[in-house]
Amino acid sequence: MQRPSQASSALPPPPSAPALPEIDREKVCPMLIRVFPQFGGHHRLEDYARRGQEPKDEVQMYTWPDATLRELTDLVKEVQPAARRSTARLEFALVYPDKRGRNVMRVVGATHSTRGGQDDNKTLKQLNFQTGDFLDVSIT
């Protein structure tokens, strides 16, 4: 009696993740993102505790849900000289309210000012960014 081969009893590969629908940036309005870059580390979570009293170094950007961390890096570099250094590293964190209404800060990726990296192509949509969330950026 012959045993079935390993190949025939193996499970099929899992389905690949569905592709995100492409956004036509000519037809879809961009959304406002409140970005808080800071040299030397992230802001403290307490800095976001009171609406209207967020950190003073806010930068407002208009972009789309399919914007990548690389695109956001380039936008931050336009307004933050420290982010233009050849050795600069930018770490992105989302700040949003949890189910109890308390703010949470969750690091979602990092980029390098001049080199490509594994997080460069992560999009805001993939990171579950929602309108009203803040983006805290640590520049080191």
Automatic annotation (TrEMBL):
<dbReference type="InterPro" id="IPR042534">
    <property type="entry name" value="SAP18_sf"/>
</dbReference>
<dbReference type="GO" id="GO:0005634">
    <property type="term" value="C:nucleus"/>
</dbReference>
<comment type="similarity">
    <text>Belongs to the SAP18 family.</text>
</comment>
<protein>
    <submittedName>
        <fullName>Sin3 complex component</fullName>
    </submittedName>
</protein>
<dbReference type="Pfam" id="PF06487">
    <property type="entry name" value="SAP18"/>
</dbReference>
<feature type="compositionally biased region" description="Low complexity">
    <location>
        <begin position="1"/>
        <end position="10"/>
    </location>
</feature>
<dbReference type="InterPro" id="IPR010516">
    <property type="entry name" value="SAP18"/>
</dbReference>
<feature type="region of interest" description="Disordered">
    <location>
        <begin position="1"/>
        <end position="23"/>
    </location>
</feature>
<dbReference type="GO" id="GO:0003714">
    <property type="term" value="F:transcription corepressor activity"/>
</dbReference>
